[in-house]
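Task: sequence design from structure.
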């Protein structure tokens, strides 16, 4: 008989919308928690329709929903309806964790603050997620990862090239790492509850996660230290931390940090040992001052051979490097499968998906399945909460449940 998953027996209320907070709930479900997705009747979580946004690649499969709602059960409750809100209280009574990223004014109107929720269930872990944090003048400002995580944290400023405008992040690139921060806080709170018997409030936000991700540059800025915007590829800060085009039109990224060890190796690899005594490149400081000249030497040499050649040479010599994968290369990346980052699913039309970015030695996560249909489990969840058939029928008649 298989070992139970580490979070078996925990019940999670996912009272949130796209994407960081629901993604944290996904991982709790991956490792055994019973995750109940609380959605409004009608359209449900707006994330169900995000595949129609122009920034999402098109597919006949609603992959964003399955990725962020897999293995959850859906209950459709109108929390603006007093009967629907009362039904949520019955679920709160039985829950271990409640996750929400509703705007703070909405939480106030729906009586979803920590104080109100914990009064019903003092053992509850209340996990709050927001764009800009719980306090301050911008706490009620709408926060998406593009503005709160990337723009406000300085990440876009630190990564854009001189003479060019800052770039724009792809969908949910900041949401998913932020989900791991919220997950970490929840797990710490569960450990604390095991010792004290009491629940607590935990929180995370996109701005804090963006600053944490941008830690090197953000900490430097706190000390008044800055670098100019990134120079273009033909004028790198270091020619040994740069990208080069191979003969088969693939981009090779080299990222040498130990130049004393690896520079002679690279010179041997490109058959230019004479450069070891070139005054422009003998010392590290000189190599950096003459990075453009070294790039001019490396460019045509690397362009003569395909990536596979350079990959074999660099790997044999232990030099840090990588191909710059095109998105269409991901399905063929055997290492992503070997690292258990890409896993098989039971979702129709979606044979593979992304796993949580960690493993637990004794517990393989639940096999991913499809995200639920809206209200697919409404009746069974209400029965589990102790509502009678007549009470359930009354909720449906009033429109408080669907």
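Answer:
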């Amino acid at each position: 008989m298989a070992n139970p998953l580490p979070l078996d027996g925990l019940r999670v209320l996912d009272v949130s919308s796209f994407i960081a907070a629901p993604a944290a709930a996904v991982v709790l479900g991956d490792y055994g928690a019973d995750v109940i997705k609380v959605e409004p009747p009608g359209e449900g979580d707006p994330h169900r329709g995000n595949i129609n946004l122009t920034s999402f690649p098109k597919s006949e499969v609603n992959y964003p929903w399955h990725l962020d709602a897999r293995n959850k059960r859906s209950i459709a409750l109108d929390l603006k309806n007093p009967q629907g809100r009362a039904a949520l209280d019955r679920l709160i009574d039985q829950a271990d964790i409640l996750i929400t990223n509703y705007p703070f004014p909405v939480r106030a109107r729906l009586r979803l603050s920590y104080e109100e929720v914990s009064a019903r269930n003092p053992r509850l872990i209340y996990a709050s997620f927001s764009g800009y944090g719980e306090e301050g003048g911008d706490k009620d400002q709408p926060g998406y990862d593009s503005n709160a995580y990337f723009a406000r944290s300085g990440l876009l400023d630190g990564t854009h090239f001189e003479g060019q405008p800052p770039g724009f992040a792809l969908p949910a690139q900041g949401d998913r790492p932020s989900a791991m921060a919220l997950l970490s806080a929840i797990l710490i709170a569960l450990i604390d509850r095991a010792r004290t018997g009491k629940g607590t409030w935990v929180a995370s936000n996109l701005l804090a996660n963006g600053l944490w991700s941008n830690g090197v540059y953000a900490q430097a800025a706190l000390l008044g230290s800055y670098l100019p915007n990134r120079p273009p590829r033909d004028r790198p800060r270091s020619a040994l931390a740069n990208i080069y085009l191979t003969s088969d039109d693939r981009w090779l990224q080299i990222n040498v940090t130990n130049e004393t060890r690896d520079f002679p190796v690279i010179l041997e690899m490109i058959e230019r040992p004479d450069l070891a005594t070139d005054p422009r490149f003998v010392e590290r400081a000189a190599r950096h001052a003459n990075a453009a000249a070294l790039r001019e030497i490396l460019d045509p040499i690397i362009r003569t051979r395909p990536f596979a050649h350079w990959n074999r040479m660099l790997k044999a010599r232990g030099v840090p490097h990588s191909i710059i994968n095109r998105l269409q290369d991901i399905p063929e990346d055997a290492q992503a499968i070997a690292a258990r980052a890409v896993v098989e699913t039971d979702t129709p039309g979606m044979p593979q998906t992304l796993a949580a970015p960690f493993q637990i030695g004794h517990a393989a996560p639940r096999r991913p399945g499809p995200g639920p249909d809206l209200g697919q489990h409404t009746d069974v969840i209400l029965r589990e909460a102790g509502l009678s058939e007549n009470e359930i029928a009354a909720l449906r008649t009033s429109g408080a449940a669907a």
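The longest helix spans residues 175-196.
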